[in-house]
Amino acid sequence: MKISTFFYTLKQGIASIFRNKWFTLASVATIAACLFVFGIAYILTLNAANILHNAEERVSITVFFDEGIEEKRIQDIGFLIEDMKSRGIVARYEFVSAEQAWESFSKELGENAQGFTENPLADSANYQIYLNDISRQDEVVSYLESVEGIRKINKSDLTVDALSGLSTIVTFISVSMIVILFAVSIFLISNTVTIGISVRKEEINIMKYIGATDFFVRAPFVFEGMIIGFIGSAIPLAALFYIYVAALDFIGGVFGFLSGIVVTLPPAQIFMGLVPISLLIGVGIGFFGSFFTVRKHLHV
Amino acid sequence: METKKRRTSGGKKTQDNCVIRLENVNKSYENGIPALMDINLKIEKGEFVFIVGDSGSGKSTLIKLLLRELVATSGKVEVSGYDLMNIKRNKIPMFRRKLGVVFQDFRLLKDRNVYENVAFAQRIVQVPSMDIRKNVPGILSQVGLANKYKSPIVELSGGEQQRVALARALVNKPNLLLADEPTGNLDPKSTLEIMKLLEKINEDGTTVVIVTHNREIVNDMKKRVITLKKGVIVSDEKKGGYIDED
Ligand SMILES: Nc1ncnc2c1ncn2[C@@H]1O[C@H](COP(=O)(O)OP(=O)(O)OP(=O)(O)O)[C@@H](O)[C@H]1O
Ligand SMILES: [Mg+2]
After folding, report:
1. Which of B27, B31, B60, B185 is the pocket-test mutation for ligand 1 (most atoms within 8 Å of CB)?
2. Taken in order A69, A70, A75, A80, is the CA torsion positive or negative?
């Protein structure tokens, strides 16, 4: 394409955006609405996944030993866990000595811990085990129960079941929402483009009579579609950004006490992914929507 | 294609001077009723031809075959050296750039002004902007609209609109001008002006084919007249007139 043709085509595309204000508005609104809902789904899914991931990381099994156990036996149990780690079941584990356990507990107690002269948690040395897949917790626990030298195993039943159930539901809802949304938006956009084309069917006709190539006829429409797609994705991105920042403020203020559990992602981390995805989808829908719809009307 | 055409048209053989050649052409629409039957027709370079006939006799169908808007059901259609029965889809734009077309309803871009409507035709064939700025005023003064180049189309009379359409058809210097009832919507004065323009264009070397219902014009101008009746050529006279129905 010659440079002057490129600029002429671009100018035509922009001009027809203003000439067909209502068509433009309808298309921009459709794309913007779809991408807005998509953005919300994206933000919620990412945050939910993050919260789940965080929570999962905290779920651990604590293994306490028999009273008066030998150092050697503790080491052997450590080898067993190391073996599970090498098989990919255990993500990581750490040995917490009685002193360390008391130290961290007395920190929580603060001033109340001052009175103790001896370690009241003398038998509280333990292994803290973090699993790769929390659904295998029961399996690991029943195995450890059969190991000699283990007095007690602490685990958190409720958290495990709730988390894995919630994770399935969130994934299911967001995937089906996105699928439905795209079906709807493709339908709406192909409709709006068809209306816009039929308004200009005469113009296309005239161009073809004069000897315009398909490419030349199509180019302004495709430019127009891409510009509409760009605007249609920029608007919800800006809106979502301000809404998200405000929402983070709100959550921080009201649910501050939950800060350990509700771990929100910073805006930058969300929008680093959402901006290119939204622009790609918006401009892509504009491009393919007009490309294929114009093609149907080129046979003159 | 271009060089070959020039070489042959420079030759002596009269056959090679044909801009339009139809042989045993039939055209039926989807409903199966024939609109044109066994048409044989030759129009040579530089001719001025009227096509007349009753409503429904197939005049517009013939023009559409020459434009390659329609394809004949059978026969041979050759225009400006292109075999329109077998032309590839991507060659059609190149073929049409050698044609100028004018319709009864003008078919202008109503949201643009006179200058833009004519420049449009040049942009489509990718003429550089500098040349467009030179060519368009030239052709507009040729059709007598030099002072109206900024006017919006909707503010022009029918006759003026048709002159814009004519300027647009001519700006790319076609070797053949096809006009389907170009004066059908015009008053007698504008009709005469348009016909004068078409005659002048023809004198400058462009082959002109005009479909018309205008009896007086046809009788006055004494050009070649082809008469269609129910899809058949019933007369073809060198200096003909409008054949009256009995
Ligand atoms: N798209 C179409 N589908 C089916 N039949 C058609 C179509 N266009 C034209 N015809 C038929 O073909 C015949 C010739 O039509 P055409 O338009 O060529 O006539 P015409 O000579 O241009 O008439 P007019 O002077 O009224 O413009 C008519 O019988 C018409 O009904
Ligand atoms: Mg007709």
Report:
1. B60
2. negative
